[in-house]
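Folded chain entry
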Amino acid sequence: MSDEDEEEPAVELGDRTPVEGAPLARVTSRLTWPKEKSEIDRLEGDSIIRTPEGPQELSSVIEAIDETYFQRHQEFEKHVRAVIGTGPVPTADE
């Protein structure tokens, strides 16, 4: 190893900022697809997801979706994002 490898990292990492809720992709990755809306609600409806408006229960978001069947997780995530919007997620301190 060279002396350069022992120096401090080139990019300094900041403190971890807590964010409430799970990323939507983490929740959808736990499911197998295709899946019915009611089955998603039964399996993961109580999961709290991160949204630009703060953490929300997935079940309440699912209620606002008109589709009843999703072939792929990308399709489901698209419909969820249409309901919750996109943008920065507030930290737990905000």
